[in-house]
Design goal:
With 138 residues, the chain is mainly alpha-helical. It contains five helices and no strands.
């Protein structure tokens, strides 16, 4: 089936190059046969799209269990990175929450978790901006 897609693509490319050799768009416009040229060009483009779709379908359907097995270590590394970063993020959120709690107690307003989350997000954005500025200076 893969050969069929390759042959279809090669045939469509041959048709496209033959059309370009026979008559360009400008030549067709000059001769008054632009409408016919567009019809042929549309058919060639449609054939090219169909062959590309067939190739994508073949590539998607030809995945094997070995491909999945090859991707399992990558997924493990990504999960490890997330699980190692998660405690740090939880700790930062806890510190931000405690800070918001202390400030709200001192001011005399009610404490809310969404406010603490917003403060934590603002802190993270400011930290990223400061890191970027420091990297540009060095």
């Amino acid at each position: 089936m893969n050969r069929t897609a390759e042959k279809t693509t090669a045939y469509a490319n041959d048709l496209q190059s033959a059309l370009a050799l026979e008559c360009s768009r400008e030549d067709a416009k000059r001769m008054g046969t632009l409408k016919e040229w567009k019809v042929i060009n549309r058919k060639v483009q449609k054939l090219l799209r169909r062959s590309k779709r067939l190739e994508r379908y073949i590539n998607a359907s030809s995945r094997t269990w070995q491909d999945v097995k090859d991707n399992i270590p990558l997924a493990g590394y990504i999960a490890l990175a997330i699980f190692l970063a998660l405690p740090w993020l939880i700790l930062e959120f806890a510190v931000a929450t405690l800070g918001v709690l202390l400030v709200t107690k001192m001011i005399g307003i009610s404490f809310s978790i969404p406010t603490a989350a917003i403060v934590w997000l603002v802190y993270e954005v400011i930290a990223v901006v400061i890191r970027l500025i420091m990297q540009k200076r060095s």
